[in-house]
């Protein structure tokens, strides 16, 4: 029986964001940069007193966006951002796979009528992730490994609608 796992995650972020009202009450621009550092130590079976598996990654990330108020109740927005995550996987030769890096884009519109009692959001998005892998098997020594497959793309749309006929009661559809 596995007596349990033990893990510690350290996250360090330095983040700077600036919002500028280009046209007051109409057009706002947002830009931000992050230096992100992640380190995870984990022991998957404390009963075996196995050495910790260490994941480490660091990267500069950004986020840019624009918000345009067509009316007080009708807003259009767009955003471009990056992300990353240290990979927890190794290849068949036990080499650590590279960090997963991502780039996301989203655009949409938001409404809020009758002081927010009727609201909706519609957006389209595309997220591209690099350094993706899949479980490829188990080596003769019992160690599992992954095989790199390259990049993946997720894209689609999202729609939600909410109505609050009375205070404290809200119906939401997505």
Structure overview:
By secondary structure, this protein is mostly beta strands. It is about 0% helix and about 75% strand. β5 and β6 form a beta hairpin. It starts with 5 loop residues before the first strand and ends with a strand.
Morphology: elongated
Total strands: the figure is 8
Our Rg estimate from Cα atoms comes to 22 Å
**With helices defined by DSSP (H or I, 4 residues minimum), what is the helix count?**
0
Q: What is the chain-wise order of helices and strands? A: EEEEEEEE
**How helical, in percent, are the residues?**
under 10%
Mean pLDDT: 88
Offer a quick outline of the entry.
By secondary structure, the protein is mainly β. The chain is 0% helix and 74% strand. The two termini are 43 Å apart.
Give a quick set of tags describing it.
mainly beta; elongated; 8 strands; 8-stranded antiparallel β-sheet
Which secondary structure elements does this structure contain, and how are they paired or packed?
Elements: E1 6-23, E2 27-43, E3 53-71, E4 74-85, E5 100-113, E6 118-138, E7 144-166, E8 169-173
Antiparallel strand pairs: 1-2, 2-3, 3-4, 4-5, 5-6, 6-7, 7-8
């Amino acid at each position: 029986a596995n007596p349990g796992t033990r893990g510690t995650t350290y996250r360090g972020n330095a983040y700077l964001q600036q919002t500028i009202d280009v046209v007051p009450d109409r057009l706002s621009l947002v830009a931000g940069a992050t230096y992100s550092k992640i380190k995870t130590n984990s022991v998957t079976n404390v009963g075996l007193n196995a050495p910790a598996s260490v994941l480490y990654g660091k990267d500069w990330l950004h986020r840019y966006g624009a918000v345009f108020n067509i009316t007080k109740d009708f807003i259009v927005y767009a955003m471009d951002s990056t992300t990353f995550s240290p990979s927890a996987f190794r290849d068949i030769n036990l080499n650590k796979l590279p960090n997963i890096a991502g780039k996301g884009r989203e655009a949409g519109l938001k409404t809020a009528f009758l002081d927010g009692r009727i609201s909706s959001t519609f957006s389209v998005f595309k997220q591209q992730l690099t350094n993706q892998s899949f479980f490829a098997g188990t080596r003769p020594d019992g160690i599992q490994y992954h095989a790199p497959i390259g990049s993946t793309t997720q894209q689609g749309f999202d729609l939600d609608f909410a109505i609050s006929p009375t205070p404290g009661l809200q119906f939401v559809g997505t």
